[in-house]
Specification:
single chain; about 600 residues; mainly alpha; 26 helices; about 0% strand; globular
Length: about 600
């Protein structure tokens, strides 16, 4: 009897150690996955700059017309399946059915490979038809080029979901970074090669989109290596270490556990057929896929409206693509700003959800207010800074100042995109999942109508204005719903008075900097692009510093906001104490 009690105690200790280890593994994996996602987005955003510099605005326009179409089709086909696969794999693992987990991979791979093959055939052989829908025949070559990625990406998505089901985020993180890196290398290499051989813009853009194919292939190779390694060693390791910890699941030594686990897998095969697994996975994945395609749809509105409208105004297909390329110059910078907001959102969802589960309405409102205020301050400063510095940034990145006004207007999408991203995350944590998707659907309609009305009148400036209106509408809907769901308050002073004074101070300083720099560069005969680069770099760094100091000094940012970003709080704590030693939080209450 004593031996039995001792064995039970050991089993309880094993379960506790196992649970703590799993929790730590999950937290580390989530952080690793988040860092990999940020790095991948950064590489994907910045890759567009060399394309425009080397190939010009026509090829840049073709690329920006085709790539959102590929992303839409890819998301529609695969976005929900990694989530579904990881869910069902995790369930099989909890029951000790590792063979059943692998069976899910086989069924999902067959399902997605069939869908990928069908979509590849539609894109490859329907490229001319799709190019006709876009209104630019030159996009057909790039559409065919990117279609090959649909043969590889489905299996890549399934394998990522499999490892995530085991709470192993390392393969996904490594494959994401390698995929994006190979994609950028391929794009740059083909870009230089095709330009050197004097290929036309259609083939150059096709070479750029082909990077998605090699990137997906590289990611698939990485996942295959992890899969092969797992097949060789991890299965035996799991049977010998994990299963004994679950004393109530199986008993005896490792060999008996292995036999029982295999028997459990065989029993699962008899109960759940391949068709049933396919049905379950598809039913679970489709809603996620539909939610994931909303954002690409908003980008795709420009693809199917602007080229036709621009061609009708200019009378030339080539000029329409050039104008479309000019219009897309501002988006990489906006995406970088939104990427910062997205990294902040990763903290918000669990924080709001935790407060909701504990029933702390005051804490939900407090955290929601801080999140929205911080997003407003980041987006406001970034938008005005990018707008004032649009001309030197344009010249630094894209070799000319053409369409600088368009870039300045597009800069304000950074404000509303940031608000939209953060408010959507807060709503998700609060349980209002449908509102962000519905808001984006309204934005899609407004963007299409805005393009139809404004592009014939003002060209790409009208398209930029319609983008600002669409994102502002989406953010506005989220904020209204957030007020209803959590009771947040949008006071005038922290949202308008102090931030606008800080923006005015920053804008005045940036305008003075540009004026003095232009006089100095003219007197010293500095090349124009060098001068613009110096103004842009100094202006971004100096403007951000002035804006941040003004916000800290006025009390628009408190220690509570900074605690959402612990590393930033640690660095600024001493400075904040010096600037405002007696009123660090402006009297705001902080629910504990």
């Amino acid at each position: 009897m004593r031996a039995t009690f001792k064995e039970q105690d050991q089993q309880k200790e094993g379960l506790q150690r196992h649970g703590n280890g799993k929790q730590n593994k999950l937290l580390k994996g989530a952080a690793l996955l988040g860092g990999a996602a940020v790095l991948s987005k950064l590489l994907g955003t910045l890759q567009k700059i060399p394309l425009q510099n080397v190939a010009g605005d026509v090829a840049f326009g073709i690329y920006n017309a085709v790539y959102p179409l590929y992303i839409l089709i890819l998301f529609a086909a695969t976005a929900g399946f990694p989530v579904a696969v990881s869910k069902f794999v995790a369930e099989r693992v909890m029951e000790g059915d590792h063979s059943g987990a692998k069976r899910i991979v086989v069924v999902s791979s067959a399902l997605l490979m069939s869908a990928g093959l069908l979509l590849f055939l539609l894109l490859y052989f329907g490229a001319e038809t799709i190019a006709g829908w876009i209104g630019i025949t030159q996009t057909a070559t790039a559409i065919r080029s990117v279609s090959f990625a649909l043969l590889l990406s489905p299996v890549l998505a399934v394998l990522r979901g499999y490892f995530q089901g085991y709470q192993n985020m390392v393969p996904t993180a490594v494959s994401q970074v390698i995929e994006q890196l190979i994609r950028v290398i391929t794009m740059v290499a083909l870009l230089l090669y095709l330009v050197a051989l004097s290929y036309d813009e259609a083939w150059i853009a096709a070479g750029a989109t082909f990077g998605s194919v090699t990137g997906a292939g590289a990611g698939l190779v990485v996942m295959a290596v992890f899969w092969r390694r797992e097949q060789r060693g991890e299965r035996v390791k799991l049977l010998k270490t994990d299963l004994p910890a679950y004393g109530g699941l199986v008993g005896g030594g490792p060999e008996q556990n292995a036999k029982k686990a295999i028997a459990a897998g065989l029993e699962t095969k008899q109960v759940i057929s391949s068709w049933q697994w396919a049905k379950r996975i598809t039913i679970y994945a489709i809603p996620v896929c539909l939610g994931a395609i909303v954002v690409p749809l908003l980008t795709l509105v420009d693809t199917f409206t602007m080229p036709r409208l621009l061609e009708a105004s200019s009378g030339s297909e080539l000029e329409a693509m050039r104008q479309f390329g000019l219009y897309n110059r501002g988006f990489p910078l906006v995406q970088l700003v939104v990427m910062v907001a997205s990294s902040m959102s990763a903290v918000l969802v669990p924080a709001i959800a935790e407060a909701k589960m504990s029933g702390r309405v005051d804490l939900i409102r407090f955290r929601a207010e801080m999140s929205v205020r911080l997003a407003w301050l980041i987006g406001l400063g970034a938008s005005f800074g990018l707008a004032v510095l649009a001309m030197p940034i344009n010249l630094m990145l894209y070799t000319s100042t053409e369409a600088s006004w368009t870039m300045a207007v597009l800069a304000f999408t950074a404000l509303f995109s940031t608000l939209n991203a953060v408010s959507a995350s807060v709503l998700q944590g609060a349980g209002a999942i449908r509102t962000p998707a519905n808001a984006l659907l309204v934005a899609i309609v407004l963007k299409a109508l805005g393009n139809i009305v404004l592009v014939p009148r003002w060209g790409i400036d009208g398209a930029a204005l319609s983008a600002v209106i669409a994102y502002a509408a989406a953010a506005g809907q989220n904020l209204v719903q957030l007020r209803r769901s959590t009771g947040v308050r949008y006071a005038l002073r922290p949202y308008a008075v102090s931030p606008l004074l800080a923006v005015g101070l920053m804008g005045g300083g940036l305008a003075a900097l540009q004026g003095l720099a232009m006089l100095a560069s003219a007197a010293w005969h500095v090349p124009e692009r060098w001068s613009a680069s110096a103004i842009a770099i100094i202006g971004v760094a100096g403007g951000a510093a002035v804006y941040a100091l003004a916000l800290l000094r006025s009390g628009s940012i408190s220690r509570e906001e900074l605690r959402l970003m612990p590393e930033l709080e640690r660095k600024l704590a001493a400075l904040l104490a010096k600037l405002r030693p007696r009123r660090s939080s402006r009297g705001r209450s902080n629910p504990k």
